[in-house]
């Protein structure tokens, strides 16, 4: 049906720049879907050479292309997908501080339903976000007793499982942890090794940075901890 519609409109149209763009986008999407035939598009573009009039509306043609896309209802398979994750937890005395799966000696730790690992939480959200999936709170609700005190590596392994299931592998990951105290540099090698294991990735594609918050706001007053992560996923 889709091919037939495209063949019908190739009689007397003039290819304008905007129509060419619509066709290019359409063509790119089809290539992404790895669908072999492009006969209809070729016929439309060929019409440019034979056409001297413009009796068809480029808008309607673009809509025709779009309707064709909607009717097929296929999700484009992108060669790369990026995702961003952010997390923040309050710090309270008497709780463990766990960052990247590593227990960090400190006078306080994260208030959370799970183990409160701010770095792993935002890594999970970055991966899920890149895949277009619901976030960590949707997949592992904090009102579910099953996740009370859970080690956050469970969440990362599930995100990685979904990533592989959808045909992607980690390209690289860049994370920034924001905390006033303690200094994270002595713990970075252990955190990095843990992330390599959890993400099944080489150290060369994982980067972790730590910053203070210049004693400003809750982060700078040692009352909270936050982290940002950006990931690039690559199609396998
Ligand atoms: Zn969290």
TrEMBL record:
- Pfam families hit by this protein: YgbB
Q: Which InterPro entries match?
A: MECDP_synthase, MECDP_synthase_CS, MECDP_synthase_sf
UniProt keyword Metal-binding, yes or no:
yes
Top-level lineage group: Eukaryota
Cofactor(s) recorded for this entry are:
a divalent metal cation
| CDD domains, sorted | MECDP_synthase
Provide the family line. Belongs to the IspF family.
What name has this protein been given in UniProt? 2-C-methyl-D-erythritol 2,4-cyclodiphosphate synthase
Source organism of this protein record: Sphagnum jensenii
Lineage of source species? Eukaryota, Viridiplantae, Streptophyta, Embryophyta, Bryophyta
């Amino acid at each position: 049906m889709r091919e037939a519609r495209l063949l019908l409109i190739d009689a007397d149209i003039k290819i304008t720049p905007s129509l060419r763009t619509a066709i290019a986008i359409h063509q790119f999407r089809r290539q992404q879907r790895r669908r072999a035939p492009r006969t209809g598009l070729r016929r439309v573009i060929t019409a440019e050479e034979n056409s001297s009039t413009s009796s068809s509306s480029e808008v309607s043609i673009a809509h025709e292309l779009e309707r064709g896309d909607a009717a097929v209802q296929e999700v484009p398979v992108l060669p790369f997908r990026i995702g961003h994750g952010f997390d923040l937890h309050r710090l309270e005395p008497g709780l463990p501080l766990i960052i990247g799966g590593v227990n960090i000696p400190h006078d306080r730790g994260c208030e959370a339903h799970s183990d409160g690992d701010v770095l792993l939480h935002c890594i999970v959200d970055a991966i899920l976000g890149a895949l277009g999936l619901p976030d960590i709170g949707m997949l592992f609700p904090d009102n579910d007793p099953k996740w009370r005190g859970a080690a956050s590596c469970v969440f990362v392994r599930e995100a990685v499982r979904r990533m592989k299931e959808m045909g992607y592998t980690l390209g690289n990951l860049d994370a920034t942890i924001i905390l006033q105290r303690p200094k994270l540099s002595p713990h970075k090698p252990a955190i990095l090794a843990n992330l390599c294991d959890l993400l099944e990735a080489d150290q060369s594609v994982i980067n972790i940075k730590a910053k203070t918050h210049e004693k400003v706001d809750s982060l700078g007053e040692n009352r909270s901890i936050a982290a940002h992560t950006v990931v690039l996923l690559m199609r396998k």
